[in-house]
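Complex record, two chains
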Amino acid sequence: MENFTPVSALVGGAMIGLAATMLLWLQGRIAGVSGILGGLLPPAAGDAAWRAAFAVGLILGAALYRGAGGPLESLSFSGTGLSIAAAGLLVGFGAGFGSGCTSGHGVCGVARLSKRSIVSVLVFTLAAAVTVFVMRHLLGAG
Amino acid sequence: MMARVLSALGAGLLFGLGLAVSRMVDPAKVLGFLDITGAWDPSLALVMAGAAGTAMIGYRLALGRGRPLLAEAFQLPTRTEIDARLLAGAVIFGIGWGMAGVCPGPAVTGIAFLQIETLYFVPAMALGLFIARRVA
């Protein structure tokens, strides 16, 4: 567990929870990133601006972190361009088809004690862990 | 309208900052959590606990006010059934998440790091979301 970073995990997590609270308190919306982005594909009149603004905010948040000299300097990806694109396709399709991802089901749904979300989180975390096991330990990739 | 856009921008900014501070924007960090039989890094579990715990309290306070500050009504999911779509979507999402260690929030947030891999992931993810909405 030499990579465990409990303090930054809890602090960052609380910030995410506060952001989700802000969106519900101010706009009455669930902070599910795949749902917010999905509503832009295609965009609907009168419902697109806040979604785009949220997405821009995500990027600005990380840009602010970088500008302030945050310790994480670069992202470490594994796999080829093709496998990363394939992963993106599955992530987008699965989140769209299953009505949510790590934020919508994982943070907001769990906070609402939604049975659907809790089941979704358990299933996708298990599927992801099995995928990592197969790729890293059986196929020896990444 | 302007207040709605600015508040969404603010919520997104805080969300993205949280993903960076917690390092969940880094795929290696996420894969470290998912790799249970490797050098396991439980950080992601604490991020989720911190986020869901904070939102649980925040949601209670927000919902207790009856209506949101800048909109007519709360828009909460109403479905309760555990159906095949929910499960199939979760399995497909989980496989993709395990392949790259990237999910939608960190994918968009990661654009700020200006790395080529984001250019492979984000458009493919948008295509996947688009297709899912078509078949749904």
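Note: Chain A has a mean pLDDT of 96.
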